[in-house]
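USER:
Before I trust my own judgement here, I would like a peer's view. Write it directly below this note and I will take it from there.

ASSISTANT:
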Amino acid sequence: MILSNIEKMVSVIIRCSSLIPEIREAVFQCLVRGYFSDPINVGKGRVNEPKRCGRQECLAVNSMTLIHNRSSIKDGSSQRMIQQPLRRHVIEVKT
């Protein structure tokens, strides 16, 4: 009789948060002339709002506002998991 132990890791989710929206690309609009900016990549959750309008015809200072429905937003959640070893005994019988 041969006895071998097989170990396997089993994960159990103990906590899960609700959906958290996370912005990936931001689009801004000038409040003076209505021009839209090119999509701006967001790094580490920080949005760098443009200080002035990017169009040569306008160049208004502090006139940009975030446009949510043109921006790219991803839903995410955080999960907390624990891992516990699970032991199984397998017995082989040779005849």
The beta strands are 2-16, 20-26, 28-30, 40-41, 64-66, 72-76, 79-92. Residues 2-92 form one domain.
